[in-house]
Design goal:
Elements lengths: L1 E9 L16 H13 L5 E3 L8 E11 L6 H11 L4 E9 L9 E11 L11 E2 L6 H10 L23 E9 L2 E8 L6 H13 L5 H10 L14 E8 L5
Parallel strand pairs: 3-9, 5-6
Antiparallel strand pairs: 1-3, 1-4, 2-3, 5-8, 5-9, 7-8
Helix pairs in contact: 3-4
Amino acid sequence: MKRYFIHLAYNGANYCGWQVQPQSPSVQAELERCLSLKLGQPISVTGCGRTDTGVHARSYYAHFDFDGEIENGQDLAYRLNMFLPADIVIFRIWEVDPELHARFDARSRTYHYQITQTKNPFHQNDAYYLYGKLDIDKMQQAAKLLFNYTDFTSFSKLHTQVKTNNCKVMEAQWLEQDGLLVFRIKADRFLRNMVRAIVGTLLEVGKGKMSLEEFSAIVERKDRCYAGESVPAHGLFLQEVEYDFNAS
């Protein structure tokens, strides 16, 4: 049995997320369906993490085990791309050590959340349209406060089955890119709904409805009820996933 890694990207608008869900289309299900047909045996794919309904991935990794040999990964990727829906693309398939795991061996993940402050028909499906003045400097200061904490229960979806709500945030900043306001955050792991809840709370700071002290107090409360509303899913992108080995 050999293990293969897949590097892919997808537009999540038409899916319930990465993970297979009953009666709902998922990226994982599409990938498993196409791989099983092309390789002639049932293939189960393990992703580097789950994304929620409507969330996109510019860079996503997964692995699968195959009782056979894939002589040309690029040729297989090409043939799969001809078969997959237009909103999923495979960049590369290659053999790795059988012990390597797409999820557990990921060192960090980076997310981008995109906001447009002017109505733009070309960003209606990949950026959150938010009208009104924002204090970007205050939002930047609030983002830096995240480095002071490891427990992000306040930004986690309730009743999730995880052993800990601790995460190590390595980067958190607001950027202006191509006319969009982008929140970039990097951590060793993320909780369900964490990025969207953080962005929603930072926007409260930007609107002048929450002070920096109140933002810190919300994190310290470890209670989701006090944080801001989660921003819409369509503005969120899994941007990068890093491993100890070269996965590019």
